[in-house]
Amino acid sequence: MAAGPVVSTTPPRPADPGTPPQAIVPITGPLCASIQNVRVNIHYMLTTNGGGNFSETSDNYPASISTTLNGYTYAAALMSGCNDHWDLNPPLLLPPGSSLTPVPKRIHLTLNGVYFHRNDAARTYGSSTIWSLRRYLVDSANTINIFMQESALLGTGPAPTFNGGEATQISYSTINDRSLWTRVWGGWSNRMQPWQMAATVNHEVGHLLGLNHPHMPVPGWTTGICADAPANPNCWGLNSPAANPLCANPANLSNNMMDYNAVNYGVSPCQVGIMQTNLNTGLRRFVASCDPCVPVSFSLRMPASTCTTNIWLDGSGAIAAHWFDLTIERLGSKGVALSTFTTRVWRGLGREQLDTYVVFQPNARYRATVTGLSACSTALPATRSVTFMTDQNNPPCPPISSTGGRTALSDGTATSPTPTR
Q1: Is 421 a residue whose pLDDT tops 50?
Q2: How far, CA to CA in Å, does 198 sit from each of 86, 106, 164, 203, 300?
Q3: Domains of the chain
Q4: Is pTM, for the whole model, over 0.85?
């Protein structure tokens, strides 16, 4: 199938021969007439020692390090903000007096994964760092990868009060191997709240789905340009920028998502048509589901080696996981389950203390599997697993003591306590 147009704010470059195409999810089923849930990965670029930007465990901000706001929770909040904006359909301000009836965008972003990379050379937003991000693409044939960088202006003066982004693409030798990715900055270095970053992310995703800037079309580029999204003087707001006299006239203000303005939520019917056409054809592989329900998403992390108590599984950043199934298996030398515990937990997923469910044996290998479930009946569930060791020497652990109130696992025995609401 022929792919729809993909607009880039930078000239596409040849593929890096060392970056192989990744497996593509086959396109099956009828065209989507509902919400297109588009897969995205969020990547945080950190310093080599883990400083700057959001980390796995905190906001990493020197003035107020918060453990409740970390890379996972920020990514989840960013997705919520983006989708709130996708749901907005205000009448367009341009052309003045437009009688166009807004058309629902029918697009949501669904979080496929959250990643953290420690690389001094690639952590700042600048022309020299963009192509160094290619190595970190994950499932690039089916998922849009969004890189969160720090402001390149940090350390050279006051931090700017705005954010920015840049969309690009990598074109492999065949159309089916195209990767879509973008990078944004401002969330950490400018203390931008997720809802403030959402407009920038959606603007860049709009480029990847086929839209151009109405105010500055690329010379010679005819795709992604719509007559019902007219060119404009690119005013951020009334009298802003002051150097542009046209911005003193309210009739020149735009609210189009693809302009640079303070309220860029609007999309013209033609622009919606371009994005939907592309998502139903050449970019369909980026669609996780065609459903008004939000797919479940979460990540799991925990130390590879723990004690037998105070074992914490971090499921931060969960989206639409209203309850979950938890399975804990003790594994044999060949990875075969020697014993199993399973239960359904009737609440949202967060940080879970596993040793409140079972008694763990020392110097043993375990696998914890979580399946997140949604109250929305047709939402796709999500399943993640992690393995870990209860090594009594790494880290050093206190002597084992009786803790009561938990379910002991013995070889060949499965226990399933009745879940309570």
Answers
A1: no
A2: 10, 16, 11, 8, 24
A3: 13-290 (3.40.390.10), 312-415 (2.60.40)
A4: no
